C-alpha cells in the first residue's frame, strides 16, 4: 500500500452514553473533534512498527502519538494528544526522505476539556472541573 503523504491527522474521541443501561433507549454515540477546527496536528503516516521505523516518509515516528482521553470526577471528557501544528512546512516535510527529523522538532502536547454538554455520568455531582482547583 502506498503511503498517502497528504493524509491529515486530527483528534476525534467518541463518547458512548447509555451503553450499560437496561432501558429501551439505545446507546448514544457522539464524536467530538477536540483538536482545533482547521488545524492539522500531523501530516503523513505514523509508523507503528517500533524499531523497524526508519525515520523516512514511510517509517515516520515523529509524532508522540500517545493520545489519552479520560473523565474528570464529574464525568466530563479531558483529552491530551501530541501535535505538530507549529511546523510551518508540515505537508512538504511529510514527503521528505528525512520526514521524522524535520517534523519531530515541532512535537508538543496539547490538552482540552469538555466544558458543556452531557456528562458520561447519569447524575453528575457537578459541572466540568477542568482548570478548577480541587479541594
> Strand order of the main beta sheet, please?
5-6-7
- How many helical stretches? 2
Tell me roughly what share of residues is in helical segments: under 10%
Counting DSSP E segments of at least 2 residues, the number of strands comes to 7
Q: Termini, distance in Å?
A: 53 Å
Low-confidence stretches: none
Strand residues, percent: 15-25%
Major sheet attributes: 3 strands, antiparallel
How big is the Rg?
18 Å
**Average of pLDDT:** 82
Derived from helix and strand composition plus strand pairing, the structural class reads mainly beta
Number of domains: 1
Order of SSEs = EEEEEEHHE
Commentary on this structure:
- Helix content is 7%, strand content 21%.
- It is mainly β.
- It has one domain (8-18, 25-113).
- The strands form three sheets. The protein has a three-stranded antiparallel sheet, with no helix packed on it. A two-stranded antiparallel ribbon has the order 1-4.
- The N and C termini lie far apart (53 Å).
Keywords summarizing the entry:
two-stranded antiparallel ribbon; mainly beta; 3-stranded antiparallel sheet
Give the arrangement of secondary structure elements.
Blueprint: E1 8-9, E2 14-17, E3 28-31, E4 42-43, E5 68-71, E6 77-83, H1 90-94, H2 99-103, E7 108-113
Antiparallel strand pairs: 1-4, 2-3, 5-6, 6-7
